[in-house]
Write a structure and sequence with these properties.
The complex is a heterodimer of chains A (253) and B (315).
Chain A (H helix, E strand, L loop, with lengths): L1 H27 L3 H19 L6 H17 L2 H12 L1 H6 L5 H29 L8 H22 L7 H17 L21 H14 L6 H28 L2
Chain B lengths: L1 E12 L2 E12 L3 E5 L6 H8 L7 E6 L2 E2 L4 H5 L2 E4 L11 H11 L4 H14 L15 H13 L5 E5 L7 H16 L3 E6 L2 H7 L2 E6 L2 E6 L1 H6 L5 E8 L6 H5 L4 E7 L2 E6 L2 H15 L2 E8 L3 H18 L1
Parallel strand pairs in B: 3-8, 3-9, 6-7, 7-8
Antiparallel strand pairs in B: 1-2, 1-4, 4-5, 9-10, 11-13, 11-14, 12-13
Helix pairs in contact in B: 3-4, 3-5
Classes of the chains: A mainly alpha (253), B alpha/beta (315).
């Protein structure tokens, strides 16, 4: 009986989680908060870093891609979840026949798709404007999918903060996101950090940046396998903490 | 068969007991009202029954499925209309219904059919492609109700459904609920409008300070307080400040002004009615209307709430 029911239930959960992803795309992708932190913020942050430096585009663009995917994928959840708490629409999903994990996976997929789409902007600019080439296009697609999902899970984890104001989540999230930028080998190459380079290992952005550097330019500090493992490990951690915190706040409601 | 079975349901917030070991059943096809003063535990109870909050102890069974152990099976069988209309303001009415249908796994063709049917039933067809942020409160309520009904649930939970609605929308909503119930939907309604419960519900449960004080049919609850019969009278001209005189009439226990009428509580309505004619003649007052009234659900509710409060006070 269980063996017969399981595939059906999994299919139902995927279908319902996808409905949440589509709903998030319709409502939150063009929200000012999402656009501000997902597109404008990484773009201007990178411009302020790159202007006046004599760095080749092949080295610059992967960094811009990593920052864009980092900020954009992790920005949808922190806007969507507190907003839905305030509007009580989050309760609509909880009273529907869909598991809490699938609700979060639907929300995470919403952020991941947004992150992947936003990533196309610096990539297209790099390819058309600066003529950069991509060494491993399939690897890049796989990297973008994996990294977007991981950073979106990070955003969902922070959205468990019990508030109805997206600004509160964004503020705390930026306390984490901004320092990570400087310990992930984007602005300061890992090899130039000397003995402090070990700090980079605790940042998911390090592996993301390294994976994108490998896919675009072919160079990598750790190798794509280690990068993929690192990102997968952080994704599972974000997912586990996120599900636990969201579930705890539901139980105490 | 029971659609809902609640056993020993309890909710603590820290040391505060919001819902205190309550038990009740709701039969299939029943219109059940859940009443109580503000802060009595109505919303906490409905939140536990719909899986929004986890009970500290006790169980809730929905169509035979335990909401804590088999939440997905239980949730397939009900729709929820919360006190605040929880709709997506940036989506159109059609998109809101479509999303609700997707959450219940309804096929695209069935979603379209049900959404069109519900929008038609609620007179919203011409607004189906408009974003709901521009809708009135009544229209939002209708969209919320439509979303709760998209999967034709066996049970509908409604938390203060007419709250904030104008009279016309409120009457229309009640007609829709009666019709749904006639067609077999079990309805669990929380309300503080006693007349609503009186005219809609087969049975009502009254919760006071987290404890279930009574569960019975409205008429049976009224019969438990036969002592509070009354006579309602309206004089022309209406003279303010009459109450002191009226309270002195034979067999009148108390008097209360209700708009342009006075309500006199008594155990002997016929004696009071006779006294009122005499009273009017002696003062040159014409009696516009006079009615003897049995106890209302409001009287029963107040008596039960006060008894419970006194009981708690003695503990």
């Amino acid at each position: 009986m269980t063996a017969l029911r399981r595939p059906s239930r999994v299919r139902r959960e995927i279908f319902r989680a996808w409905a949440i992803t589509k709903k998030d795309a319709r409502i939150y992708y063009l929200r000012p908060g999402t656009m501000m932190f997902g597109l404008m913020f990484p773009l201007f942050l990178f411009i302020s870093f790159a202007v006046g430096r004599d760095l080749p585009p092949q080295a610059l663009i992967p960094g811009l891609v990593a920052i864009t995917i980092f900020f954009s994928a992790s920005s949808v959840g922190p806007v969507a979840v507190p907003t839905e708490r305030r509007m009580k629409t989050h309760e609509r999903m909880i009273t529907a026949p869909i598991s809490p994990l699938s609700i979060l996976l639907g929300e995470i997929a919403g952020g991941a798709v947004y992150g992947a789409v936003m990533t196309a902007i610096p990539l297209i600019i790099g390819m058309i404007w600066y003529g950069i080439t991509i060494d491993h296009p399939i690897g890049l697609l796989a990297s973008v999918a994996l990294i977007s999902f991981g950073f979106s899970a990070m955003g969902i984890m922070f959205s468990a903060i019990p508030t109805e104001n997206p600004g509160d989540v964004m503020m705390i999230l930026n306390f984490v996101r901004l320092p990570l930028l400087f310990v992930s080998g984007i602005f300061i190459p890992i090899e130039e950090m000397g003995r402090y380079g070990i700090i980079t290992l605790v940042s998911p952005l390090t592996y993301a940046n390294d994976m994108i550097q490998y896919s675009v330019g072919g160079s990598s500090a750790f190798g794509p396998e280690i990068d993929a493992l690192g990102i997968a490990a952080f994704t599972l951690l974000f997912l586990w903490v996120g599900v636990t915190l969201h579930e705890r706040s539901r139980k105490t409601a | 068969m029971n659609s809902i079975e609640v056993e020993d349901l309890t909710k603590y917030y820290g040391d505060f007991c919001a819902v205190d070991h309550i038990d009740f059943d709701v039969e299939s096809g029943e219109f059940f009202g859940f009443l109580g003063p503000n802060g009595a535990g109505k919303t906490t109870t409905i939140r536990m029954m719909t899986g929004l909050s986890t009970p500290s102890s006790g169980t809730v069974s929905i169509m035979g499925f335990d909401i804590s152990r088999d939440p997905l099976d239980a949730k397939e069988h009900f729709g929820v209309v919360p006190e605040a209309s929880n709709i997506y303001e940036d989506l159109t009415a059609w998109e809101n219904l479509n999303f609700a249908g997707e959450l219940y796994g309804i096929s695209r063709s069935e979603r379209r059919r049900r959404a069109a049917e519900l929008l038609e039933a609620f007179d919203l067809s011409e607004f189906k492609d408009k974003k709901v942020k521009g809708f009135s409160k009544g229209m939002r309520r209708k969209v919320t109700l439509s979303m709760a009904m998209i999967h034709s649930p066996d049970i509908l939970f409604l938390d203060e459904p007419t709250s904030g609605l104008d009279l016309q929308s409120s009457i229309k909503l009640k007609e829709i609920l009666r019709d749904l119930n006639r067609r077999g939907t079990t309805i669990f309604l929380t309300t503080h409008i006693l007349e609503e419960a009186n005219t809609l519900c087969d049975r009502v449960g009254i919760i006071v300070r987290g404890r279930l004080a009574a569960v019975d049919a409205p008429e049976k609850l009224k019969r438990t307080i036969q002592a509070s019969q009354s006579v309602e009278v309206s004089f022309d001209p209406a003279v303010p400040g009459l109450a002191f005189d009226l309270e002195d009439l034979p067999a009148v226990t108390s008097a209360e002004k209700k708009g342009d009428k006075w309500r006199l509580w008594t155990q002997d309505p016929s004696l009071v009615a006779a006294s009122l004619f005499e009273y009017g003649n002696s003062r040159g007052l014409k009696i516009v209307s006079i009615n003897t009234l049995g106890p209302s659900l409001e009287d029963a509710f107040l008596a039960i709430v006060n008894d419970q409060a006194k009981g708690d006070g003695h503990q």
